[in-house]
Amino acid sequence: MANITKKVSWSSRADDSAAAAAEEGTPLLLNGSEQRRFSRQELSRSQTREIPHNEKLLSLKYEGLDYDNIENQLFLEEERRMSPMSFRCLEISRWVVCGLIGFLTGLIACFIDIVVENLAGLKYQVIKKNIDNFTETGGLSISLILWGGFNAAVVMLGSILVAFFEPIAGGSGIPQIKCYLNGVKIPRVVRLKTLLVKVFGVICSVVGGLAVGKEGPMIHSGAVVAAGVSQGRSTSLKRDFKIFEYFRRDTEKRDFVSAGAAAGVSAAFGAPVGGVLFSLEEGASFWNQMLTWRIFFASMISTFTLNFFLSVYNKKTGDLSNPGLINFGRFESESVEYNFYEIPLFIVMGAIGGFLGALFNRLNYWLTIFRIRYIHRPCLQVMEAMLVAAVTATVSFTMIYFSNDCQPLAPENNEEYPLQLFCSDGEYNAMATAFFNTPERSVRSLFHNQPGSYNPLTLGLFTLTYFFLACWTYGLAVSAGVFIPSLLIGAAWGRLCGILLASFSPNVSLFADPGKYALIGAAAQLGGIVRMTLSLTVIMVEATGNVTYGLPIMLVLMTAKIVGDYVIEGLYDIHIKLQSVPFLHWEAPATSHWLTAREVMSSPVTCLNRLEKVGTIVDTLSNTSTNHNGFPVVVQALGNDEPGKLCGLILRSQLIVLLKHKVFVELARSRLTQRKLQLKDFRDAYPRFPPIQSIHVSQDERECMMDLTEFMNPTPYTVPQDTSLPRVFKLFRALGLRHLVVVDDENRVVGLVTRKDLARYHMGKHGLEELQLAQT
Amino acid sequence: MANITKKVSWSSRADDSAAAAAEEGTPLLLNGSEQRRFSRQELSRSQTREIPHNEKLLSLKYEGLDYDNIENQLFLEEERRMSPMSFRCLEISRWVVCGLIGFLTGLIACFIDIVVENLAGLKYQVIKKNIDNFTETGGLSISLILWGGFNAAVVMLGSILVAFFEPIAGGSGIPQIKCYLNGVKIPRVVRLKTLLVKVFGVICSVVGGLAVGKEGPMIHSGAVVAAGVSQGRSTSLKRDFKIFEYFRRDTEKRDFVSAGAAAGVSAAFGAPVGGVLFSLEEGASFWNQMLTWRIFFASMISTFTLNFFLSVYNKKTGDLSNPGLINFGRFESESVEYNFYEIPLFIVMGAIGGFLGALFNRLNYWLTIFRIRYIHRPCLQVMEAMLVAAVTATVSFTMIYFSNDCQPLAPENNEEYPLQLFCSDGEYNAMATAFFNTPERSVRSLFHNQPGSYNPLTLGLFTLTYFFLACWTYGLAVSAGVFIPSLLIGAAWGRLCGILLASFSPNVSLFADPGKYALIGAAAQLGGIVRMTLSLTVIMVEATGNVTYGLPIMLVLMTAKIVGDYVIEGLYDIHIKLQSVPFLHWEAPATSHWLTAREVMSSPVTCLNRLEKVGTIVDTLSNTSTNHNGFPVVVQALGNDEPGKLCGLILRSQLIVLLKHKVFVELARSRLTQRKLQLKDFRDAYPRFPPIQSIHVSQDERECMMDLTEFMNPTPYTVPQDTSLPRVFKLFRALGLRHLVVVDDENRVVGLVTRKDLARYHMGKHGLEELQLAQT
C-alpha cells in the first residue's frame, strides 16, 4: 500500500515528501482522533482486498493555507500605527506588484513563444528538406528515424528536467494551481526552480512534437511569478530586496497568486476577462472588488506585454493583434454566421464532446493508475516520455505517408511547410498540415482553411490517432498542457461533422463553411475534458475574437459538462483526487445536514496555556505522532480538571519563531535590553519556517515559561458543537480558515475542525461517503 | 430637519414610510444604545448649523436581508428527511426558474423595444412631416409646439405613473438593485406593481424624447421578474401556484434576484458575461460556482429570447444579430484598428471622461439636494418632468434649426428621418441625426457614420447641451436609465476629439476614422459617471462585438474611475448615500483596526428566554422605541442576575408566526390534536409578515409560555468582544449576516452587531468618520 500511495504524490518522490515537509516547515496535522481513525482504517483496509488506487483516501501530507489574518496584538499595533497615507501607499504598491506580475508573465509567455516558434520552425524545416530529398531517392525510413530521434532527444531533455529536478513542474500545473487557490499548500509549487523547469520543460515538450500545448503551463508560471514578485525576495537565491514585507503572509500572497494565474491565462489565450473568471471560478472564497480590479489589471498588462513584444519581434511594432500564445484567428461574422436552427446541432456536438471527453478522462485515469503503480522511478518516466515522443513521430509519419489526401497548392494557401510527398506537383499532403506542424497552427488551419482543404477520411483518422496520443501524453513527466490537444481533437471531428452535414444537405448555404463546426467541436471536446464553464466560454470567445459565438459556445460547454459529469469528473479533478488532496468544493454535500461539528471535529485537542512551560511546547511540537499545526490557547480554571476556556489560537509557525528567538518570560526579566519581538521577525521566517528539530533548547530553558498573550490570535472563529456540517463548511470556506475551534456552551474547547475534516465527506454514488485519511 | 430627511426616501412619500414598514413587517431595528446615541446626535445636530443634506446620516428605515439560513430544528429535520434525489430535483427546479427568469426578462425587453421603436417611429414621422411642411410654408413654431407638447404629454403619463403609483420605480433602479444585492431590503422594490410602472414608465420616457435610455430599467425589471418567478406566487395578485415553496426565504430569493439582474443586463446590452460580472461586482458576498453557472444560464436565455423574438418581429427569423436593446453595431477590426501609441491618447480621453463624469455627478448631486428640499410633492415632480420634456424638445429644435451642418444625402446613408430643413436638396441636417432620433440610434450614428458626417461645431454644441439635459433629467420622477445618455455625450465629444486629431495630423491614416474615438469617449464618459469597472468593460466589449478594443476600454475606464473618484463618488453611490442606505462596502475602512466589537455593537440587547412568557414576547415586539428584529435566546443561570448564556437566536418574523398560530406550551398540552407548526407556515407568511399590532393575544394567553427551542437558530455566529472591526466586518460580509451576537468569554450575550453598526463607519477626508443614525 505504502508503495502505491507514496508514488501518487505530485513530487513523485516518496523519500522526498518527509524531507520536503520538514524543510517547508509544514508537518502533518494529525489530531488524536484522526490518528485513531487512521489506525482503524489501516486495519480494515488490510482485511479487505488491496485497493488498486487511492482516490478514496485523503492525504495528510497537504497543509492548508492560512487565509485568516492572525490578528494578534503585534498585528493590531502595527495596523493602528499606520496612517491613512500608509494604507494608500500599501494599496499603490499592490497595484505596482500586480503590474509587475502581468509584465513578467507576459515576458515569459513571449520568451516561450519566440523560442518554440524558432526551434520548431528549424526542426520542421530540416525534416521537410530531408523528407523532400528522400521522397525522390527513396529511403524515407531514414527521415522517420531522424524525426523520431530528434523528438525523443528533445523530449528526453525536458523530461529529465522534470523527473529529476522538479517533479512538481510536470503536467500543466493547472490542478496544482487549482489546489493552491482552493487553499491547499502544495510543496514547492511556487518556487523559482519550478518556474525554470516549467519554462524549459514546456519548450522541450512542444519542440519535441508531443501532443501538447504551451498554454496550460503559463497559468502555473504566472502563479510562480506572482508568489515571487509579491514577496520582494527569493528564498532560493537568498536575496531579500527589503520591499513588500507587508505582503509576507498567506492572506496577501494568495491574492497575488490569483492575479498571477489570471495573468497566465490572459497571456496564454489573449483573454484577460477569461483570466479573471478563471481565478474567480477556482478561488472565489476570497474575493472583493478591489482585488478583482487588480487581477484584471495584471491580466491586462500581461496580454499587452506579450502583444507588444511579439509585435516588436515580428517587426510590426505597435500592431496589437497577437494578444495570446494561441490565436484562433478571427471568425468574421459575415462569412461564418449561424442560425438558430443550428443550435440543436451544436448541442448534439456538445454531447459528443462530453462523451469523448469522458472517454479521454477515463482512459487517462486508468493510465494514471498504471503509472502510479509501475512507472514511478524517474528514469522510467524519462524513458516513457521518450517512447511517447518516438511513437508520436512514427504515427505522424505513417499517417502522412499513407494518406492520399492531396490538395492543390493554392496561391492564397498559407501553409508554412507543405509536404508534397507522393502528391503530384502543385499539390500538398493535407494530413501533414495537421500532423507536421505545431498544434497551434494545426488548430488554426482546421478553423480557417477553406472548405475542401481536408477530406473526411483524413480528419477521421487524425481524430482517432491524436485522441489516443494526447491521452497517452497527459500525465507524462514533462511540462505541458492539455488545452491545445483537446482543441485540436475537437476541431478535427468538428470539421468532420461540418463536412458531413454539408455533403448530406448540399443546398443549405449555412453548412458551407466547416470552420464554425471545427470551432464548436473544439469547444465541446475541451469542455468535455476539463469541464470548466464560465471562464472557458469567455476564454473561447476572447480567443476567437468574436462575441457572436458566445451563445453557442456556452450551450456546447454546458451540454458537454452535463454529459461528461454523468460518466466521470473533469481531468483536473481526477488528478487532484488521485493526489488525495483535501480539496474543498463550493458547498458541503447536500445530504450532510445530519452531521454536526461534534461528529466532524478532531478531538481531543492539544491545548496550550496562555503562560506555558517551554518544555511542554517543545514536546508538543516535537511529537511526530500528533503533528498539529494550530493550538487553541486556554485559560485553565484553578484546581479544576475541566477543559480550559478558549482565549486564543496560536500556530506552530509562530511558536517556532518564538522558540528560535527565545522569547521566554525569565529571559525578558533578566535581559531588559532584549529587543522586543516584532511582526518583522515572523515575516522574515515566512514561508519556510524551520522544523522544530533544528531549534536547540537547553534543559534550563525547558523550565522557562513562555507568554503567548501577545502572539496568539485572541479572537479565533468558533462554532458550537451542534452546528451542522453545511454551516461549518460555509464558515470555513467563506473565510478561508485553516483551524476552526469547536466550543461548548461554556466557551471551553472541545474540538478542532480543519480542512481534512471537511474534505473527508463527499457525495458518492450511494449518498454521503467518507474518505479515509492516510499518512501519504 | 425631519422635513428634509423624510423626503430623501426612495419612495418619496413620508407618510408612506411608516405604513410601508408596518405592511412589510419590517419595523426598525433600534437597540437601546443606538437609541441613546441617536438622541445624543439629535442634540448635537440641533446645536450645529442645519445640515443641508443627509448623506452623513444612516437611515434606520432599511432592514437587512437574512442571507444566513435559520438552521433550526424544523429546517434540519426537513433537510434530513430529503433524499439525494429530492436535492437533485431542487437543483433542477433552480435551473428551470433561472431559465424562466431569463425567458421572461428577454420577453419584457423585447416588448419594450418593439413598443418604443414603433411609438418613437410614429412620433418622429409625424413631426418630420410637420417640419417638412412648415419649412416650406414658414411657421416652424407650430412644429416646435407640436413636438414639445407631445413630449410633455407622454412624459406626464410616465411621470404620473411613477410619482403617484410607485415612486420606487423611478430612475434606473440600479442603485436599488445594488442595495438589494448588497443585502438591504428596499421596500416594494421587487413587486409586480413596480415592474408594471417601470415598464410603462420607461416606454413613456423614451418616447417622450427625454435624454434617457431604456437599458438601466431592464436590470430592475429582471430582478423583479426573478423575485416573482422564484417564489411561485404573487402576493399582490393573491395567487399561490404551490410551487417553488422551498425557495421562499431570503437566502434563495437573493440568488435568483442576482440572476434576474444579470439577465436584465444581458438583455439590455446583449452582454451575458457582462451581466454575470455585474451581479458579481455588486453582490459577491454570496457566490459559488453553481450559482454563477445558473446566473450565466439566465443571462444567456435572456439575450437569446430577445434576439429570437426580435428576429421574428423583423421578419428575419433566426438571424441572431440583435442580442441586446442597444446594439453598438460591429466595429470591424480591419477598418478601425488602433496602434499602441494611441494608448496615451486614450488614457487622456479617459481622464477627460473622468473629469466630465465627476462634473456631471457633482451637478446632479446639487440638483438632487435641491429636489429633496423643494420638489417633493408628486404633482411638482410631474410638472418638473413635463418641463424637462418640453425644454428638451425646444433645445433640440433650436439646435437643429440654427445648425448649419448640412451633409449630402449619400445613397449608403441609413438615416431613417433625414431632416432637410434649410439645407439644399440632397442634403440633410447633421445635428438632427443626433437630436431627432432615439438616443440609441444617435449613439450608433456617432460610432459608425463615415468620417465627415458631422462637423466639429455640431458635435461640440451637441455635447454641451446634451450634457446638461441628461444631468437635469437623471433623478426626475420618471423611469429611465443614464447609460445611453452618458454614452451619447461621450460618443459626441469622443468623435470631436477624433476629428480634431485628424485635422491636426492629416497624414496619419490611423486618425482617419473618428468612430473609434467616439467609442473610447463613450466608454470614458460612462465610466466617469457610473464608475463601474470590470463589468462595464465586458459590457462594452460585448456590445461592440469586438474584443480587440477590450484593452483600451479597460484602460480608459480605469483612468476615468481614478480621476473621477478624486472629485466625487459614482452617480449610483451618490444616490445610495443620499438615501442613507446602510450599504456595506467590500472591506472595513483601512484605519478601523482600533475599533472592536465592544465599541461597535449595540448594547444592552433584549434577550428572550428559551421558555418565555407570551406577554413578555408581545410587549417586546410591540415596543416601538426598541424595534428589534432579532433576539438572542439565553439560558438564565438560576438565582443569578448576570446576563444569560447564549443558546440561540430568533427573529421577529418567526415570533410573529408563532404568536399567530398560538404555539403556546399550555395549549399544546390541552389540545393534543393540534397540528404541529411546520416550516411551511413560515414560508407561507414570507415575505410580508403581519405587524404585531394585527395579532390579537388575550389576557389569558399572555400568561401562557412559549417554547422557542424548536424554532430558534441554535447556532448563531458569535464573536468575542475584542474582535477588531475589520474582522467582524469580514465575517458579517462574507456570510451575509443580519445579526451577529457578541459574547464574553463565558458565552454570555453582551451585544448585537447589525448592518447599521458596521455601515456607520467609513473613510472620510479626515480619516475614519462615523455616520449618524436617524429614524428617517
TrEMBL record, chains A, B:
Xref: InterPro entries? CBS_dom (IPR000644), CBS_dom_sf (IPR046342), CIC-7 (IPR002249), Cl-channel/antiporter (IPR051280), Cl-channel_core (IPR014743), ClC (IPR001807)
List the SMART domains. CBS (SM00116)
Transcription as a keyword of this entry, yes or no, is no
Keyword Transmembrane helix included in the entry's annotation? yes
Question: Where does the chain cross the membrane?
Answer: 95-116, 144-165, 195-213, 256-279, 291-313, 343-361, 382-402, 457-477, 483-505, 517-541, 547-568
Q: Where in the cell is it found?
A: Membrane
Annotated GO MF terms: chloride channel activity; chloride:proton antiporter activity
List the biased-composition ranges (Low complexity): 9-22
- Among the entry's GO cellular component annotations, what is one? lysosomal membrane
Q: How does it sit in the membrane?
A: Multi-pass membrane protein
User: What residues does the CBS domain cover?
Assistant: 712-770
**Residue ranges of region Disordered?**
1-24
Q: Which UniProt keywords apply?
A: CBS domain, Chloride, Ion transport, Membrane, Repeat, Transmembrane, Transmembrane helix, Transport
Q: Which family does it belong to?
A: Belongs to the chloride channel (TC 2.A.49) family.
This protein's name:
Chloride channel protein
Native source organism of the sequence: Mugilogobius chulae (yellowstripe goby)
